[in-house]
Amino acid sequence: MINVEANFLIFTVATYFLAMIAGFASSAFGKEKISRAALIFLLLGLLLHTISIGARMAVSGRLPFANLYESMTSFAWGIALITLIVSRIYKSVKIASVVALPIAFLAALYASTLDKTIEPLMPALQSNWLLFHVGVAIVAYGTFAVSFGTALLHLLKEHFKIERLPATKKLDELTYQLIAFAMPFMTLVIITGAVWAEEAWGRYWSWDPKETWSLITWLIYLGYLHARLVLRWKGRPAAWLAVIGFLAVIFTYLGVNLLLSGLHSYAQ
Amino acid sequence: MKKNITSIWQFISSNVFAVSILGILALFSVIGTVIPQRENPDVYARLYGEVFSQFFYNLGFFDFFNSPVFLIILSLLGLSLFACSFNRLATLLNDKLNFYHWGSFAAHLSVLIIYLGAIYGQNAGFSSYVQIEKGEIFLEPHGGFSVRLNDFNATFDQNQRPLTYTSDLTVIDNNKEILNKVISVNNPLVYKGIKFYQSSYGLKGELEISGPDGKSQRLPITVGGCAVYSATGQMFHVAEMIPDLKIIHNLTLDKYEPTRPVVLIEGNGYLLQGQVRKAGAYSLKLLAVKEFTGLQVKRDPGVPIVYFGFCLLTVGTAIMLLKRNNNS
Fold first, then answer.
1. Are B23 and A219 inside 8 Å of each other by CB?
2. Are A185 and A217 in contact (CB under 8 A)?
3. CB-CB neighbours of A115 under 10 Å
4. pTM of the predicted model as reported, rounded to 2 decimal places
5. Does residue A191 sit at the B interface (CB-CB below 8 Å)?
6. Which of A23, B3, B105, B167 has the fewest CB atoms within 10 Å, i.e. is most exposed?
7. Where do the structural domains in chain A lie, given as residue ranges?
């Protein structure tokens, strides 16, 4: 079964790669057929990925959130799924998914290189909060990943004056929509984390690096929303804030565990 | 004077001030995650050198989230939130705005409530850490009752990865056994509003050192720690502690005693409980090795307020999201 899981993950990575290439090609040539191919590859990739994660859950008999490999493959899955949904909802800017897909591809690729040993859930993780806490994190981080894609496209479009890309106004609006959607979930990530920490360690907030960085991320996006809504920021400054926000997401998720020490050290 | 107050209020409730404070709080928080917090002075001296260590220490960087700088930033954010919530409420009551604005008001107010809950909890509650040995009774000073550790268990899988840590506790109040509970990491004991959390476990022992001056000293020891004979400053490092000798397999000893604890003193070999060993001009005697459970003990009456704030924040942001999506 570990073979099923590992093999399907490799196929997933390959399929995401094809989806990504097809996405690039469709934005370069503007052909409807290539764009449809990109969508089919993405769908196929998600299916393979779901089988890989399902096999893992069948073997371990629990949620796939115990170590870095499991959480990385789950987050890659979340990013791919949200990319798919966003590219279906916003057909006029489906190209936006092109920039988010490489993130899903890289996350899945990275996951495929990690240690796949099945480990028992360590005592602190044995809680009903695990599903909810990681579940909302996947939605929040996946959506932020796509907003990073649209913000990056926005900046590229403005800098290089690329004709074929969607209008900056559209990208700007989409970035905002995505971040406004993700924020309540990010808030829930922090709240469920706090309630869980109170139950496990007797303190809902201890300024542990992971907690603090999730707060920093939250503050950056909160700054983005306030800057847009009450200061009427538009265009490039707002797009830069969205880019910085996602860099903070990556640091909260990965950087803290790899570079700083703290209570979340089990994720290493 | 009145004009001054009005302009200060306008500044505090301004959007520019609010957004700036968010940015400043985010930036400064980074300091407390990049610099290790609450370490020993020698760790800082090694990391940053004497001069910078002193400089950072003066700025409060080594306990940054309790430093005046950080508390001032938090207070300014609180002030900004208060001003914004107040103004929002004023417009809400006067202009009969829609549901979205009520959600926004709730979200802002909720953060203030979380603040208040946190401050109240810090002042009205307590938090401490205790180590209780098997069979020992611990008197909880705040609650005026006792807790006895009946048993402690750590279970591991075949690869020595931890599965569970559990402590079997009995609450004794007024000389009566009130309740019994086996606590684990996500499952604390609650009695009279005081919570006991499974936090850590380990071994501790007692070593008797007789020095060249003919005196002797009893010192507590832990794994990785060292016992210092205070008259001469002579140190004995404790490399290993084993509560029960039968755990070691490759050890050849003159006499096998299955229930006797043993410690490894660096440079002086294994020492059995009760055994006396010459170590140069000193002689060492292991008095005892015991398992203990480490419990976080706390009472935080601010938690319900903070949780209420969490609920309000969730509801507020949910309303903002739903109403905005309906409008667009």
1. yes
2. no
3. 8
4. 0.88
5. yes
6. B3
7. 1-121, 122-268
